[in-house]
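Quality-control log, excerpt.
Job 1 of 2 completed; input and output follow.
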Amino acid sequence: MESSVLESIGVEIIGVMSPVSICMFLVVLLVYALSPSDPSSSSSIRTAANLVYLENATDSTSQKLEGALLNALVFVILIALVTFLLVLLYYFNFTNFLKNYMRFSAFFVLATMGGSIFLSIIQHFSIPIDSITCFLLLFNFTLVGVLSMFAAGMPIFLRQAYMVSLGIIVAAWFTKLPEWTTWVLLVALALYDLVAVLAPGGPLKLLVELASSRDEELPALVYEARPTMPRNASALAFLVAGFSDSGSVELQAVSRDNASPNQNDSEVELDSFSSNGGERNRDEGQRLLLVDRHSSSSDSSVSVVSDRARQFGSAGSEIVADEEEMSPLVQTTGSGNGREQLRRDATEMFSRGIKLGLGDFIFYSVLVGRAAMYDLMTVYACYLAIISGLGCTLILLSVCHRALPALPISIALGVIFYFLTRLLMEPFVVGTSTNLLMF
């Protein structure tokens, strides 16, 4: 049965919303398990997010608001300076330094912050484990995490799992910030994300444009809904997989320059490349045979078309692949030029797969984790608001055809729904429940 465009887009959206939901759910569980029963008794931690002002319970509302604004301003300035520094390093081709920096950052977060949460869980649930076993488990968890996120040839599921784990660990630490600082910081980061991605000269916009001009991956921790394969051979118009007479799978490549049906069959051998970009595998047994076939054949073949390609119904038509990267997802067919153009526009932005920055995972979860410290009703409201905002962002992504910030809409809806639920809905529901009223 023919797969529709809505089904393919739905798979992409679910592939992003599912890990976001898992991240928020696990952060809520950590907050409920590790937070003290009396929030006022917990001591605030000193981080880069509260360098200027450390909130105290005895401070007045104006002092808390003023201190939270100063903390948010300083933190956003630090983030902007670091981002501009990363853009400069990437502009001058310090790519290896950036990769090593990201490896060290991931190792540090998993080993220290993750280890602290791991020890807190052991102490809270009184898990019987000795120090040597605990150290070995933590070391293996950290090492496998760094390898899965940055090494080639690792399963995509393992990489996705560790990306979510990294977001959970950082978000759990951010929930330890004071309440006023947390809310003002979330709003400030949403505004900064809006400016950094959309404003001319914004650091994130410059970084995306540099990566696109060089046809490279972003030098950042980004969650990918599915694996992608960079497109290095620009002379090939598309790849079609079929079955040969011997039963082995071969790749048939049709070149745009050789589109005439009268040409003879030609064979092109393409060495398989490693995923770190460009190293040739010298093993002759791992070569892929690319066959350019234009003549008709009586043997039947089964074609598997990537989601980058669009298959036309008429004979002699071609399947045009994405010019940068390919990864199999669905097969779509069209019966007319108008319908095909509509499908092409609808799936253009989703053909490469949706990518979400790790910071979006973190601050979505921070908002829900902060809501979990008050009441479960606010957790439900904030979760629905964040998911709705993410859906709106994905819709705008398909309309605008450009990189968009994922924080502003979701954070704005989450903050609004939190205070509406806490100030209006929660007193109303509790009042009606205690008075045995139905509504």
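Job 2 of 2 completed; input and output follow.
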Amino acid sequence: MDQSAAGVVTSSSTTTTTSLVGDFRGRADVSACLLAATAASWLLFYGCSNTTLLSLAANVLLLLLTILFLWAKAARLLNRPAPPIPQMRVSQQVVDEVAALVHSALNTALSAFQDIAHGRDSLLFYQAFLCLWIISIIGSLADFPTFCYTSAVAVLTIPALYQKYQECVDRYMRFAYMNLQMYEMVYERFSMKCFVRARDCVMELLKDP
């Protein structure tokens, strides 16, 4: 697949994902159903019983395969029609779209990491620092499945809250960003003074016999 085709697949997959997320955010009933399903699954698997998602999936798949296998064997012996199972295949287009989406996401993450490591984008550094710090705190308080469920709940609730209180949030974010810029300027001046003093001390030491 050439670069033009890859770009088309990437743009189409990104547009599809964006439209899907936009549909979820715009429809309160879909968001409410997903939120209820997430809370119910968490209570089922981790709140009220010792059942895990992996064991439940394995048991359901084992039961399904056993029923279909016995059904097919009995149908062959009794000259009855086989189980109506459609042909299940993953198309190459779906694979290309998923690969292009993963490729685009990885390139975006690596580009952001490079910008932060080179000190090009201070705001991006503060955002990444805050997100990783919050993830670290949440990860120390809960296990990985609970963190995944909490992330799903946050994805379903935070956009709605932001749309409701957008003006207030934007005002506080601008105020916080101005303060961060001020602290960054103070830090740069302080670090520059320290660097100049250290350089002068080194030069004086080198001049002395």
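Post-run check on job 2. The CA atoms of residues 135 and 159 lie 18 Å apart.
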